[in-house]
Each structure stands twice: as structure tokens, then as C-alpha cells.
């Protein structure tokens, strides 16, 4: 039988049924999801997913940072361990496919593989990473970064949301402050929707990410002087928001004048005391600088630092960078990228190669083991919004590729060079 004839296709009915169910948790009623990390909706989604794993015979593990794992040993204790996953937390009023699709597809793919029979040579674990989005607690990729040893556990547990609640406190409240040792896989696969319209424009249905961009998550405090918005003379005002506005414009200007690719944003500003009748005394800016090359990130950081004093002074305020979370740029495992492409070709699915500008948990894991993210299209390139949508046909196509990658990797005993062989 030829490789094409023996392709493994995902159980699309199972995939769709599980996607419909997980989309109920935190539903906003308009197609979207509001399920930030460690909220009640996030806890409920994880509780449901945990029950699905247990009902199918998986051993459920929860580590100290709240990563949820479903492990199933199919090939004995010494067999290689393949990990597949993503995350169930969402952005506020975000979409229902971002993250959740990767977790649900992982379960459907492994269940399809088990159903198809044969003698497995690998064991499997599904990962639901804690706080991938970084919406409620910063930085993003928190759980996977602790797993990969990129940040310290105690530091991560101490991160606080706007109301002052810590990660550690909320893990306890939601029942996800675990004590299990995290499984240590030999490789990691992640399936996601695209965060752009490039695939749709090109007519592609599968795209491995070859590179992940680097990012600087910069927190800037602008300090002015609280006063009344009525009688305080204009020339005496030290308006922290005005100082912040000058800095926000500069962050955008850096992207406009960059000699190479640079994406920038200031998507959150915390204002104190945030009253319409008070000249703000403080504004905290959450800036992001993203680029594929370290030199561009170095230039953008240096340029921003140099510009801050004069920009703040224009509003009679002061500004300082109080923290920077750094995510280095890198390349995903090229063997896994080629395997993704080979399987897509065997299915006859048009494909292309992409970089990922947004972060994924595979970025953290890529620092310690072979990892890949591959994408299916999102209609209109929409992501992090209630109308985010990927068709059932494209969801199934991505699932097909994932399932057959599992089959080939298993037959090769997780030897990626062997998996790429003609008879894998």
C-alpha cells in the first residue's frame, strides 16, 4: 500500500463535537470567548477537558504552575514521549479557535491514532499550557516558560493581575495548583490558526512556521502630578496621560522608520486615578516591540530609551522603563517543518511557509526540544476577536495533517530523520 493510500485522517466528528463543547465555556453569545487564565470560565473549561481525558484512560497531571497534562502510555515505560498541545485560556472577548483548537485537535488526533490500531512505539501527552495569552497575567507563555526553565517558578507565581490577585493565589482558588512532576517529552507539536490573511490570500491550507519573531514586552511608567481638570492652569499641569500619548506616538514612529521589519504596539494603558475630573498622576504603558532579528530589537529598545526623557518632559512628566520581558527570535525544527510539508503534499493540501510574529507555547519549548507550530487559515486573518473563524473543512485538514504526522513519528519511534524517510 502506498503512503498516500495509508494516510491517517482525523475523526472529524469527534473534533467538531469537542470544539463545540469547549466553546461553551466563557461564550460571549456572539461567537466569541471570554476565558482569560484562571478565571471561572477557564477553570470550568479545564475541568471539562480533564474529565474528557480521564474518561478515555489518560493519566492527568498538573504541575506547580498549573500546566495540565493528559498522558497515555501505549508503548511501555522506556518508549519515546510525544507531546501535542496548546492552551485553553483566551483573550478578553477573544475568539474560540485560538489555542483551544490545538488542544482539542491533539486529543482527537491521538484518539484517532489509537482507534486505527497497530502497535504503537511511542507514548503521548496532551498539554494545556497555563496563561499562554498573557491577558490577565504578564508575561504571556507563562506556564510553558516555567516548564522550559526560561523563568523561575516563584517569580511566575507572584505575577499579579489588575486587581492585585497573584497567579499562585488563583491557582489555589481554581484548583490548579498542582504538585505533579511535568512529563519530559522528546518532541512537541502544536496546531494553530493563522494570525494573518496570508494563507487565505495565497489559497494555502497548511503552513508550518519556520521562524518565530523575537519580542520585547516593555512596561513604562509615566509619572505626573494629580490635580483638578477644572481650575488647574494649563501651564501648571503635569499630565501623565499626555506624556504617555507622546510616547505611544513614538512607539508607532519606530515601526514606520525601521530599516527592517518591526511591529510595535501599546495596547494597554493603566491610568491612575482614572477619573474624568482629575489630571492623571500616573500612566503605565504596556508596549510591545516585535522583530525577526535581534539587531532590530536592540535598535528599537535603544531608540525608545533615548527618546523617553524628552517625550515625557514635553508634558512636564517623568518616564522610566520599569521592566522588560524578552523573548528571543529563533527557528523551529526544520525536520518537523519538512514533515508537515510532506504530509500536506500527500493529502494534496496547498501549503506555504510562514513566520510566526505572535507567541506560541512552542516558542518556549523550542528552546529545549524539537518543536513546531503549523497553521490553518483564519477567515479574513481575524484573531483575538469574537468573529474569528476557521471552517470545519480547514479544521479537519489541519487535524488530518497532525494525525498522520503522529502516525509517521510513531512508526519511526520519534526518530525525525527516519520519519522523513520514504517508507516512514
From TrEMBL:
Give the lineage. Answer: Bacteria, Pseudomonadati, Pseudomonadota, Alphaproteobacteria, Rhodobacterales
Give the binding site residues for Zn(2+) 1: 87, 98, 192
The alphabetical list of record keywords is: Hydrolase, Metal-binding, Zinc
The answer, when asked if Ribonucleoprotein is one of the entry's keywords, is no
Check the record and name the InterPro entries matching this protein. Amidase_Cbmase, Bact_exopeptidase_dim_dom, Peptidase_M20
What EC number(s) does the entry state? Answer: 3.5.1.6, 3.5.1.87
Q: Tell me if Repeat is a UniProt keyword of this record.
A: no
Q: Which cofactor does it need?
A: Zn(2+)
**Gene Ontology MF terms:** beta-ureidopropionase activity; hydrolase activity, acting on carbon-nitrogen (but not peptide) bonds, in linear amidines; metal ion binding; N-carbamoyl-L-amino-acid hydrolase activity
The species this protein belongs to is: Cereibacter sphaeroides (strain ATCC 17023 / DSM 158 / JCM 6121 / CCUG 31486 / LMG 2827 / NBRC 12203 / NCIMB 8253 / ATH 2.4.1.)
Q: Any idea what this protein is called?
A: N-carbamoyl-L-amino acid amidohydrolase
So which domain of life are we looking at? Bacteria
Alphabetical list of SUPFAM superfamilies matching this protein: Bacterial exopeptidase dimerisation domain, Zn-dependent exopeptidases
- Provide the family line: Belongs to the peptidase M20 family.
Amino acid at each position: 500500500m502506498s503512503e498516500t493510500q495509508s494516510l491517517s485522517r482525523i475523526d472529524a466528528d469527534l473534533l467538531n463535537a469537542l470544539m463545540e463543547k469547549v466553546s461553551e465555556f466563557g461564550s460571549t453569545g456572539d461567537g466569541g470567548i471570554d476565558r482569560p487564565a484562571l478565571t471561572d470560565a477557564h477553570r470550568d473549561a479545564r475541568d471539562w477537558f480533564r474529565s474528557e481525558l480521564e474518561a478515555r484512560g489518560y493519566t492527568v497531571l498538573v504541575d506547580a504552575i498549573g500546566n495540565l497534562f493528559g498522558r497515555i502510555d501505549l508503548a511501555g515505560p522506556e518508549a519515546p514521549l510525544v507531546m501535542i498541545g496548546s492552551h485553553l485560556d483566551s483573550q478578553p472577548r477573544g475568539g474560540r479557535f485560538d489555542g483551544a483548537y490545538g488542544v482539542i485537535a491533539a486529543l482527537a488526533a491521538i484518539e484517532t491514532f489509537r482507534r486505527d490500531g497497530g502497535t504503537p512505539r511511542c507514548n503521548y501527552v496532551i498539554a494545556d499550557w497555563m496563561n499562554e495569552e498573557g491577558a490577565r497575567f504578564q508575561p504571556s507563555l507563562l506556564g510553558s516558560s516555567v516548564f522550559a526553565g526560561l523563568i523561575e517558578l516563584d517569580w511566575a507565581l507572584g505575577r499579579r493581575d489588575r486587581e492585585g490577585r497573584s497567579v499562585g493565589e488563583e491557582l489555589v482558588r481554581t484548583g490548579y495548583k498542582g504538585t505533579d512532576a511535568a512529563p519530559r517529552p522528546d518532541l512537541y507539536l502544536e496546531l494553530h490558526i493563522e494570525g494573518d490573511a496570508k494563507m487565505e490570500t495565497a489559497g494555502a491550507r497548511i503552513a508550518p512556521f519556520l521562524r518565530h519573531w523575537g519580542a520585547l514586552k516593555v512596561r513604562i511608567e509615566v509619572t505626573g502630578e494629580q490635580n483638578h481638570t477644572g481650575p488647574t492652569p494649563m501651564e501648571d499641569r503635569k499630565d501623565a496621560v499626555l506624556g504617555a500619548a507622546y510616547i505611544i506616538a513614538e512607539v508607532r514612529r519606530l515601526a514606520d522608520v525601521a530599516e527592517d521589519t518591526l511591529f510595535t504596539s501599546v495596547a494597554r494603558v493603566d491610568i491612575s486615578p482614572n477619573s474624568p475630573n482629575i489630571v492623571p498622576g500616573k500612566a503605565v504603558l504596556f508596549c510591545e516591540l516585535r522583530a525577526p532579528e535581534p539587531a532590530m530589537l536592540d535598535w528599537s529598545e535603544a531608540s525608545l530609551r533615548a527618546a523617553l526623557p524628552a517625550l515625557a518632559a514635553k508634558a512636564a512628566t517623568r518616564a522610566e522603563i520599569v521592566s522588560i520581558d524578552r523573548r528571543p527570535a529563533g527557528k523551529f525544527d526544520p525536520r518537523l517543518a519538512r514533515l508537515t510539508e510532506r504530509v500536506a503534499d500527500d493529502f494534496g493540501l496547498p501549503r506555504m511557509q510562514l513566520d510566526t510574529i505572535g507567541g506560541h507555547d512552542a516558542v518556549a519549548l523550542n528552546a529545549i526540544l524539537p518543536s513546531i507550530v503549523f497553521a490553518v487559515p483564519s477567515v479574513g486573518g481575524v484573531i483575538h476577536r469574537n468573529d474569528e473563524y476557521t471552517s470545519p473543512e480547514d479544521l479537519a485538514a489541519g487535524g488530518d495533517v497532525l494525525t498522520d504526522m503522529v502516525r509517521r513519528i510513531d512508526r519511526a519511534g520519534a526518530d525525525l530523520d527516519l520519519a522523513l524517510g520514504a517508507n516512514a
